Amino acid sequence: MQQALGEKRRTVVVTGFGPFAEHTTNASWVAVQELQKLGLGDEVDLCVREIPVDYQEIQDLVPALWKRHNPQLVVHVGVSSMATTVTLEQCGHNNGYLGLDIRDYCPGTHCCVQGGADCLVSTIDMHAVCNKIADAQLDVAISVSKDAGRYLCDFTYYTSLHQSQGRAVFIHVPPLGKPYTAEQLGRALQTIIGVMLGELHRPSAKMIGQMVH
After folding, report:
1. How many structural domains is the chain composed of?
2. Active-site residue, selected from the candidate residues 76, 93, 153, 199
3. Which terminus of the chain, N or C, has less C-beta within 10 A?
4. Which one is catalytic: 23, 34, 89, 119?
5. Inside any domain, residue 25
6. Do 92 and 148 form a contact (C-beta atoms < 8 A)?
7. Which of the residues 76, 93, 162, 172 is marked catalytic?
8. Residue 130, domain member (yes or no)
9. 60 pLDDT higher than 60
10. Position 161 in a domain
11. What is the DSSP code (8-state) at residue 108?
12. Percentage of residues in the chain with pLDDT exceeding 90?
């Protein structure tokens, strides 16, 4: 269908991570590349970006993505060796970062934003999304989590939530083949993000992320 006159196109930015540790091919970036092939429909401008597992780079790149694209939503995708489902993370945490990144660096403050809230919550209700996905007959399992792991995934999520007043999302995927293919993960991301865009327009959607001290 032709876009209605005056209707504003929506921009969605989706990121995946580069290699780190045993993840020489990072399933998150591979899944995002599969999503790029599929797209998010004619009314959505999809921008994808690979980001490094690097604290200092994240602190510069994430705000730059928000400023450059002014997106309706940013979706960060990361890999978890422990995940067996596609996992929707509800919140990001400010403190407790002890793990070293690919440059053997860790913030001396062990936090994302000095003086920031301990926890920021996405405006999108992940349980509502998960319930709707259950009816979509995807060939992947979906779950919800409130702990993104206190490494670069969690760090990126909090940084993005802080930048956007809650209009960010983080999705963990399992390593490739454990048990899903890149194509399955790409299709899952396409469906999940489509539902999330619908949730943003619900009257009950919060306008800012909740802060927990």
Report:
1. 1
2. 153
3. N
4. 89
5. yes
6. yes
7. 172
8. yes
9. yes
10. yes
11. T
12. 82
Catalytic, 127? Answer: no
Residue 169 in this model has a pLDDT that exceeds 50? yes
Q: Per residue in 122-155, pLDDT tens?
A: 999 999 999 998 766 788 999 999 999 999 999 9
Q: Does residue 33 lie in a domain region?
A: yes
Annotation marks residue 89 as catalytic: yes
Could you confirm whether 172 is annotated as catalytic? yes
Instruction: List the domain range (segments joined by +) for residue 152.
Output: 10-212
User: CA torsion, points 67, 68, 72, 77, in degrees to nearest 10?
Assistant: -100
Alpha helices in 134-181 (DSSP H): 152-164
In DSSP notation, 175-198 reads PTTSS--HHHHHHHHHHHHHHHHH
Q: Residue 7 corresponds to which tokens in the numbers above?
A: 């209707």
Quote the tokens at residue 24.
């020489």
Q: Directed axis angle between helix 182-200 and helix 27-38, to 10°?
A: 70
Kindly list the distances between the CA atom of residue 53 and the CA atoms of 103, 153, 188, in Å, as whole numbers in the listed order.
Answer: 9, 8, 23
